[in-house]
Design goal:
The structure holds 3 protein chains of 3 kinds. By secondary structure, chain A is of the alpha+beta class. Chain A is built from 5 helices and 5 strands. Chain A has 2 domains: about 80 residues, Ubiquitin-like (UB roll) (Roll); about 70 residues, [2Fe-2S]-binding domain (DNA polymerase, domain 1, Orthogonal Bundle). Chain A is globular. By secondary structure, chain B is of the alpha+beta class. Chain B folds into 3 domains: about 190 residues, Aldehyde Oxidoreductase, domain 3; about 325 residues, Aldehyde oxidase/xanthine dehydrogenase, molybdopterin binding domain (Aldehyde Oxidoreductase, domain 4, 2-Layer Sandwich), CATH 3.30.365; about 140 residues, Aldehyde Oxidoreductase, domain 4 (2-Layer Sandwich), CATH 3.30.365.10. Chain B is built from 17 helices and 34 strands. The model of chain B has no long low-confidence stretch (mean pLDDT about 95). Chain C has 11 helices and 14 strands. In chain C, the strands form 4 sheets. Chain C has a 5-stranded antiparallel sheet. A 4-stranded antiparallel sheet of chain C has the order 11-12-13-14. In chain C, helix 10 packs antiparallel against helix 11. Classes of the chains: A alpha+beta, B alpha+beta, C alpha+beta. Chains in contact: A-B, A-C, B-C. At the A-B interface, helix 2, helix 3, helix 4 and helix 5 of A face strand 1, helix 1 and helix 15 of B.
Chain lengths: ~170, ~800, ~280
Amino acid sequence: MVDAASPVGGRSECALRLTLNGAERNLTVPVERTAADLLRDDLRLTGTRIGCSRGVCGACVALVDGVPVATCSMFAFQLDGCSVQTIEGLDQDGQLHPVQQAFVDQGAFQCGYCTSGMVLLTKALLEQHPRPDRATICEWISSNVCRCTGYAQIIAAVEQAGARLAGEEST
Amino acid sequence: MKPPTVAPAQLRDRPAATPPLKVVGHSPPRKDALEKVTGRAVYSTDIVLPGMLHAKVLRSARAHARIVSIDAAAARQAPGVHVVVTGADLPAHIMPFYGYFIKDQPIVALDKVRYIGDIVCAVAAQTEAAAIAALRLVRVHYEDLPVAANIEQALADDARALFDDAPMGVVPAYGDGASAQLRPRKNVCYQFNYRTGDAAAFARCDHVFEDEFRFSRMTHYHLEPFVSVADARGDTMQVWASCQNPFPLRKELARMFKWPENRITVQVPFVGGGFGAKNNVKTEAVSVLLSMLTGRPVRFCLTMEEGFLTNTQHAAILRLKTGVMADGRLVARQSEILLDAGAYSDGSPLVAEKAGYRIPGPYRWEHIDTACLCVMTNTAPAGPFRGFGGTQTSWASESQIDMIARRLGIDPYVLRMRNLLHLGDPFVPGESGIDSDLRQGLDVVCEEIGYHRRTHDPRSTLRRGMGIAIGFKDGGGVNKPAQARVKVSTSGDVFLQCGTVEIGQGARTALSQITAEILGVPLDKVAYAPINTDYLPFDQGTNASSGIAVMGQAVERAARGVRDQVLAFAASQLGVEAGALQLGNGVVLHAGKPHPLAPMVMRHYGGTGFEFSADGFFKAASDHHAPLEAPCVFWEIAWGAAEVEVDTATGQVKVVKLVASGDAGRAINPVMLKGQEDGAAIMGLSQALFEHMIYDDQGRLLNADPLTYRVPLAEDLPHDFVTITQEQGHGPGPFGAKGAGEGTILPIASAVANAIHDAVGVRITCLPITPVRVLEALINQQINQESVP
Amino acid sequence: MEYLPTAGLLPTSARSLAPLRLWQPASIADALVCLQQCEEPVLLAGGTDLVAQFNEGLAPRALIDISRIEALREMRHDDGVLQIGALVTHHRGCSDAHMCSRVPGFARAWSRIANPRIRSRGTLGGNLMARRTRYEGALLLQALQAKLLFSSVAGNEQVGVHALWNGDLPRRALLTAIEVDANDLLAFDYERGLRPLMTQALSVWRQPQGLQLTLVLATEYLRPVTLTVFLAGLRLPQLVLRAGAIARDLMVGLPSSFADAQVTSDYVRRAGAALLVRQLESLHG
């Protein structure tokens, strides 16, 4: 077993520096802590939900450097140096982000458990593809599971959000 | 891949209202919208209490075995462990069994395990890691018993009984034609029977067709896991649970732990999906017990894999013997329905009641004879699942209706039209009348899909066809009481208090809309109380699509009651007749002139204010002539139509267009309702084509994890997906509303099977309709055709 | 869940892990030292599959995070031989300009596996080393006759993709790159319309006296099986004319044991043949 004196070293804790919802955070985390548990248990940001704990359902999705990632499938220390956005970081001073507003307007959620992940996934999609066609929307939304909606209203919300962000429709 | 087209909410035949409705029938944002899109919504998974311990359980890897010994000594000594509980450690004074009609499921296994997943040992520890590490030290010695992994194995003469002794059970009272028995035979925990008319009717028939159908088993796959936090220190018991029926849960915990009900509080935050799984005891008995034994709050949260092993839909074998006349008139149906109830009865007797009751479908019969059996197998317990027996029966009945039509050379649409019940016809003798125009509804989906204009191209490799089906179930529960309370403060703020749980279906919003409409206030003036059994009126549970039609009537009565109170008070203050007054937003109107409520109250009750409060109660009147002891409150009916394209080289079925339509009577919130109809239809489509739990013949679940258990994703949407909400206006609920939310799951599988038959002439009677089954059927068809000289 | 033969099933997860020790080597050489010296080391790339392994009972004590090793992200091409670093993500790999021009069929197939969220983070190496029959990387690379390049303190080694399944992998070694010699590759097509029941990857290779057709089939539960046929004297444009016969001949080689809970071998043979005909037709078109 490599000991602490070995040239490459091994540690049980990591210093973590990240930007979380726009704010600089400095933390120390145990190596085995997952990103989802860091957010939910340590930082009490429970908007990131845990569903399957396997990276399949996407309820735990947060944006890491703008990319949607299943936080249950990441260690917290992997967030070092990253910019992380959770659902809590989306609305500004009580003003909903256009994606959030579109989800409200289209009724794109029911039990709400997948919603945090879906909203952030949508935000990332629209940043990569500002006016996505239906095929692209379907492909992206297939990254996450929703058991309630049957997806039709989610797809409509993505389209509406895209239109509004592109300035083609007033809110 | 062609992306789907999705249509916005479509409403049909909206009944006029006088005066025009201001809140009901509109689609304001959901009351929980802000919380859910910002992530601020709190679920039971988020509940943390100081000093909270974490529970984990060890589960059986054997499908059927006697527990010879459990050695948990090392586990008890493990770091961070507060208590270890096996069957031998259960306190003597508690009743360790729970269930619905039959109390057969132990908190932890006692003498044997009955399925892979059965709980053997429970630990509460400082952390989940400590609990798991402790369980890893437990040693269990099992003695294998023969496994009955499916219905056939369980009913075989040499099958081993899952239960040697009869668990405590009840059979409710039934009315005309209905009856039930406990344990009629080995490995059958309950049998429901329904009979009307005379078996001699079969002799009069021109044809008698016997067909067998097989229905698959799905798991609910609610994204929020089963979870509860229990704090049972001292003499009060506080439970936070992801639970659809907090009051029955409270009652069950009171019975099991010999605890007064008024010292048990059940609170339910938002529920992240239930679909029927989250009823009665699931994680709560373990968390309560461990809290009692440790003197600390205990959280018990299952993984999704554990969820698969906790509650499932019922697989079923349905054998229908149907007698008809040559002109297509339906005469008699004798059915034997075998439900795979899994290892513990859970909600199976109730499902058996409903499956046994619904199998005739929405048709006129002279004679019905049905037996529905709950067969115990060494698999995960089956229980309530959206559709509740109606999915199984619609699959079989609507498939056979089509088969009969083809055999008689009659168009399936014509055969249905000829036999459907009319608006107002009792479903069966003693029952309430059908409250939808079934023919009108069928025409809606047929028109949308172009059923009468369909064409066929037998030369193509990709063959198209269309199918229709009618999903049918009674709605609103049986004998179900509902209570609600509405309070109005002097500022006109409204408090709605009732036990309906928000599980995603939009109950909070819709019931608030009804309240707001009656009180003449904007929706945001109504606050829906959090679910807490201490403060809310009793409710039997959020199930049976009863929210609008049953609880909605209680809410309506409570709202009217409080409105009348306010108006009576104002009348006495103003010296006028109450009938001359109208209630507005914080004001009372007399001949158009507004009189603010607050000053009137202050004059009379003083500056500290006042609340007006009224209760509402609704229950369908009991009637011994009704087969289920009370006439059904409403009929949940949905029509489905599918256009498929069958790849005859691979058997793959693409759903080109899916039309699903339910009659909601009146849609309280059309956008929200569309979401429920969409979601139910896609669940039905999923079951039709691919989603199912794969059990082998040793009771092992092969796709027991989120990666291999396939649920529908956005890419699985049909190319053209249309849901239409009909508002035929005949519902008994507020403003002519009925219930919804389960309707559109019902007709989808049979509509798809009927469409496949229309396309390629093969009949699949087994779910899911996989490419393998379709191709096999096509090959057999070709062999049969080639062998015809 | 973890299966304990002496007790039953345990719902393990990342939350039940004992404290881990972490190494974050900055170079391949450092990583190899870690691999050699750590007790039961587990490698961490993107980590998308590791959590599933924790759910299945994997409880490592040492974690070697190789994500800082830039050399593992290189994509090289040299005289028709492509080298894809093990840490190349699906998203980056399939959109690489050279990949798209040199092996467009593979780039296209690669761009459709999993979903956009997984593709942005999952690595090709991680996909392969997870050794899950449901993942598609191994099947695609098997059809490309790819070589897996491993390094250990003992030296470098090359193995075929099949080594993932038969356990013949170098011990305490790091998968550094995947190598595809595309010089004789004439065409590649991936058919995944029947997924997850079955998928199949087709590659066509130039041979001295004709063509070699390789078809790799897999199901959700079954490991890939490779069927190969040599077609003497044929050229690519002629394949479509003999598509039916080629498909039948090739599928005869499918073992009758190739069946699982969802598909029979008979089904795979028939449907696979039909799909293969379409694949050959699409190559022509």
